[in-house]
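debug: dumping io for the single-chain case to check the tokenizer round-trip. Nothing else runs in this session.
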Amino acid sequence: MPELIAQIRNNLLFERRDEYNCSATPIDWSTRGTPTPIFGSLCILVCLLGIIPYVACMRILWELRKQACYKMMFCLGMLDLGVLVGNIFVGVIFIIGGMFCHSPKIFVAVTFLADGCFVSSCCACLMIALNRFVELFNIRPLLKIYQGSGPWGIMTIPLAYGLFFNLFTPFSLSNSEVHVFLFDPMIHDGKYDVSTYFVSAN
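debug: decoded output
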């Protein structure tokens, strides 16, 4: 029966974990990976096309930042831009046929950017929804936390949430052979159960 990977760990020391030990098997990693220039280029193009309107909208949100919800939406936009920029690098990985064991540190850095911003944006959406709820029903005791610089402080919660995911929970890795993010670095065949409860909860 596969061994469940640790659900809480120190990801800064990921190379010490057996599930990420590229030298643990006799696989010649230079022969692995599937270059897909068309798909990778399409990923980059879609991300670039997404960045252009995002930047334009961010400028407007910044001008409207006197209102709490626009401060929070500006922060959400920054996180979404992080996801798009991260996935530009993923497009490059698909173009060259990259695999985790080709360059582990680069793959983890791309994951930290794309996945970290993604889970942070999920939390940011919740923060904005709570703000809308409080203002819609005019819950006066809670309205005070949205005054002044309060919204900026509130949006540190999504940042902390994303940082927790990056540093302490199992992370996914882009994979050119299957064209998705996988929690399995595909080093050990069936040795580990790479399920992660945190992503399921997110």
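debug: round-trip ok. The radius of gyration is 20 Å.
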